[in-house]
Amino acid sequence: MKIQVLGTGCQKCEKLAESAEAVAVALGIDFELEKISDINQIMAFGVMLTPALAIDGEVKVVGKVPSTDEIKKLLQ
Question: Has 13 been annotated as catalytic?
Fold first, then answer.
């Protein structure tokens, strides 16, 4: 599973990356975490608000840091 955090490196973006990684580890998922900070790559996903979370290339959350429960539902 590929987990991608789209954001410019702001505090919320970092929080989302930490939360997504922690949930994936807790669930025992084999995953790769990629942080995408290049604005052109972010826009290529169709994302205009950061942070955003994409799973296997599909954007799931935009413009907020989801709760760990929300992330867990997305990863399962």
Answer: yes
